[in-house]
Design goal:
This protein is of the alpha/beta class and 324 residues long. Helices cover 38% and strands 19% of the residues.
Length: 324
């Protein structure tokens, strides 16, 4: 494993934080990582990937007093990725991570549990067949949640898939994989199975473009189609900070539509060339589901935000082949 004169020990684990304009969010994540417990036998680093930020993100990271608070066998680094979009930021993390084996991904609004690094590293070491794995994502709320929270939490990257580890089955219907926040990938598995260019490029927050969302799922579906396994590790827990603005109607409708618009690319990642032959059936099925949703609930969309989100997602699914 590589080392450097500034950090002579081999690096076993990299925590990558991809951020855009995260000057006010990054410090909380760094504080949570500096408090990590049980990492005495692990040399690890935090790699902040600055995705072309326009604020003081670089200054905040470069002046953060990591060595004053964090374990001595860890370090903090900053790199700049000028291409806007989370796909570019994650790929930069894979390329620049000092660890040759494991890269764990956190968003700049994810607060990991105090044992997250230890549990993330150990889980992969115990299972050589694993290519990637994710954990439990709890909500961290600034106020009591709205009464429709349970119905929309999946769209807000809040997942709890149980307290027992399991392998995500390739034959499950529907096929699922972990969400990006708090997930870990094996660099070799990524390089062997994920295409150099994904169809979904990720959110371009500077350009206000969200069509490419769900790029994390696209990469993991390609990995799941290979010989590598994808797992759930319940001992890896993160808290996803959700300010009240995330529950505003416009925001929820936007992310519902963009999730739908990503659907065709995810089908290609799951099914490959078979999508070409199944496309007419998918197009007909998506159209019928969209029409049924509209005709059944057309009087409810103004007052029922959950049904309005369902309509937007189905509309996005129907239109998704034209956006890829």
């Amino acid at each position: 494993m590589p080392s450097s004169p500034l950090f002579p020990l081999p690096m076993y684990f990299t925590v990558a934080i991809c951020t855009y304009n995260g000057e006010h969010r990054i410090p909380q994540v760094l504080e949570a990582l500096a408090r990590q417990q049980g990492t005495e036998l692990i040399t690890w680093e935090v790699l902040v990937v600055d995705n072309n930020s326009r604020d003081r993100t670089a200054e905040v990271v470069k002046t953060y007093h990591w060595d004053d608070y964090a374990p001595a066998n860890s370090r903090l680094r900053w790199v700049f990725e000028p291409r806007q979009g989370t796909t570019h930021a994650r790929r930069r993390a894979i390329e620049d991570a000092a660890s040759e084996e494991w890269v764990g991904f956190l968003d700049d609004d994810n607060l990991p549990a105090e044992t997250w690094v230890r549990e993330a590293f150990q889980f992969g070491c115990d299972r050589p067949e694993i290519g990637a794995y994710g954990g439990i994502i709890h909500p961290k709320l600034d106020a009591p949640p709205p009464d429709y929270f349970d119905a929309v939490k999946r769209r807000l990257a809040v997942y709890d898939r149980g307290d027992r580890p399991f392998c995500y089955a390739r034959t499950a219907t529907p096929r699922i994989v972990p969400a990006a926040p708090g997930s870990v990938v094996r660099k070799r598995a990524w390089r062997e199975s994920v295409p150099q260019t994904l169809r979904l490029q990720g959110r371009d927050e500077a350009g206000k473009t969200y069509v490419g969302a769900c790029e994390d799922l696209e990469a993991l579906f390609y990995m799941q189609n290979s010989d590598w396994q994808i797992w759930h590790n319940p001992k890896m827990e993160v808290w996803h900070h959700l300010p009240e603005s995330r529950f505003q109607r416009d925001y929820l409708l936007k992310i519902s539509r963009t999730a739908g618009l990503s659907n065709h690319a995810l089908r290609i990642a799951r099914l490959g060339a078979k999508v070409r032959w199944l496309m007419p059936l998918y197009f007909l099925s998506d159209g019928l589901k969209l029409a049924q949703c509209y005709l059944t609930h057309r009087g409810d969309f103004d007052d029922d935000i959950v049904k309005a989100c369902d309509l937007q997602e189905k509309m996005g699914r129907f239109l998704s082949p034209f956006y890829v």
